[in-house]
């Protein structure tokens, strides 16, 4: 049997029927009021019926201040959470598990979405054009230290709503240049207070956030997504990579977090996440998730070598809703095409 098809039975995370994970992918098919829809229910149910062990939802916004994407779903109110229940139920009926990815875009946004200025670690706008509205990214407002508990509260409230709606787990998105990563990344974080400067200070926001969530959700139902190395027109890494990893990863473990998703977005795994995982595995006896670009044979080798416990695929799940079943049957995988992003199928 392929190691991808073996059950996950770990004290550190929820039990799963196999190691095949559908990665979080922003799709933008929620209602104008940011509720989950019946089309979204059918979309996620297809992947569960296709054998996925775990499904990570698209980025789900915890508060309007974190919005930055057209028609993204929210979990910022009880009504939002209620709209997710049919999705969760459909995944469970098909034998799968589903985690809600909690998202705050920070400065990767615009007042078109947030109303007021976006918030961040900094008051410097991100470079480039926001593909969601065709405008330069908005000039953010640097959060005051006194505001951090409010932000953590948004995440905590969203996490409690997600668990209440039946999600098996939640994933804290603290990578990909979004809010928490804007504190971690010294290229972005230009603060001079206790949330900026040293490695310890730049990790403070993310660590305090994780500590707060652990008060409300059992540790084995929490994932944290990090992206110390990813592709952004070239390989993009935290400048003080080893020093950051040597401090941040053991601190996450000390807090009680037990599962991490090392994401590289649309990058070559071995040039990005795979390299990071080889650095952190000695300091992380818990669950590690990663993948994205791997073939079946490469994924099996990473599991067998003890680097990965769970393997993620994103775009290939758009092309192959039945990816896990194809692995079980030894069937070829349908290649991904960009046109697949335009429909929710």
TrEMBL record:
UniProt domain NADH:flavin oxidoreductase/NADH oxidase N-terminal: residue ranges: 15-331
Task: Please give the Pfam families that the UniProt record associates with this protein.
Answer: Oxidored_FMN (PF00724)
Per its UniProt record, what PANTHER family does this chain match? NADH OXIDOREDUCTASE-RELATED, NADPH DEHYDROGENASE 2-RELATED
Q: What is this protein called?
A: Alkene reductase
